[in-house]
Specification:
The protein has two helices and no strands. It is mainly alpha-helical and about 70 residues long. Helix 1 runs antiparallel to helix 2.
Length: about 70
């Protein structure tokens, strides 16, 4: 077990989830750019909503593990 209170397996799963979410965000960004280029407002709105959700999940996942400050 690491000093942060999480097992190595927990941190590995968290990393895999974070990587999957970041890849999903990249794909959504590419699709969003294409929708903007083709002026497809309906698809653009849907993609922006999906992108917002993925970004919120990334933020939540990134902030859920708080490591203690060094020297503590």
């Amino acid at each position: 077990m690491s000093g942060c209170g999480f097992s190595r397996d927990d941190l590995v799963r968290r990393g895999e989830t974070m990587n999957r979410l970041k890849e999903q965000r990249r794909a959504l960004n590419m699709r969003l750019r294409l929708a903007m280029q083709t002026h497809d407002e309906a698809v653009r709105a849907d993609l922006e909503a999906q992108l917002y959700e993925v970004t919120a999940q990334i933020s939540c996942l990134g902030s859920c593990v708080q490591f203690p400050p060094q020297g503590s």
